[in-house]
């Protein structure tokens, strides 16, 4: 399944569990009248639920920003597995890096700053 491939094998999160959000609750929360698969991922102190809806939705600018220690390795993994990558070069600033899973979710990937 692509969700597990991207979040677990590319971003390094662990799939803790999955469940299905019933149609009635999905309609009440999101206005979507269908059962939705939900995946709960965790990595270190960060955990999140990912609701999957394969229907086309309006364009949006929402994204999640993650810090990762080796962006170049992540870019290689994403390209190898055909995930969309946008690496935007900027003058006198670090590149902006965005990657998308195959469901259209956007992630900004910042280089992790190691504090000593």
What does this structure look like?
This protein is α+β, with helices and mostly antiparallel strands and 116 residues long. The protein has a four-stranded mixed beta sheet, with helices on one face. A hairpin with a 5-residue loop joins strand 6 and strand 7. The longest helix has 10 residues.
Mean residue pLDDT: 85
Task: Give the overall silhouette.
Answer: elongated
Specify the structural class: alpha+beta
Major beta-sheet overview: 4 strands, mixed
Number of helices: 3
Q: Radius of gyration in whole Å, from Cα?
A: 16 Å
Which secondary structure elements does this structure contain, and how are they paired or packed?
Layout: H1 2-10, E1 14-21, H2 23-30, E2 36-43, E3 46-51, E4 64-68, H3 71-80, E5 85-90, E6 93-100, E7 106-111
Parallel strand pairs: 4-7
Antiparallel strand pairs: 1-2, 2-3, 5-6, 6-7
Quick summary:
Helices cover 23% and strands 41% of the residues. With 116 residues, it is of the alpha+beta class.
Structure characteristics:
alpha+beta, elongated, 41% strand, 3 helices, three-stranded antiparallel β-sheet, 116 residues
């Amino acid at each position: 399944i692509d969700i597990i491939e991207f979040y677990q094998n590319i971003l390094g999160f662990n799939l803790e569990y999955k469940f299905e959000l019933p149609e009635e609750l999905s309609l009440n929360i999101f206005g979507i009248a269908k059962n939705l698969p939900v995946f709960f991922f965790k990595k270190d102190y960060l955990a999140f639920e990912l609701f999957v809806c394969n229907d086309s939705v309006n364009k949006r600018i929402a994204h999640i920003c993650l810090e990762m220690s080796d962006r170049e390795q992540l870019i290689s993994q994403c390209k190898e597995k055909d995930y969309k990558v946008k690496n935007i070069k900027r003058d006198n600033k670090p590149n902006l890096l965005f990657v998308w899973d195959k469901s259209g979710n956007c992630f900004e990937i910042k280089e992790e700053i190691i504090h000593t």
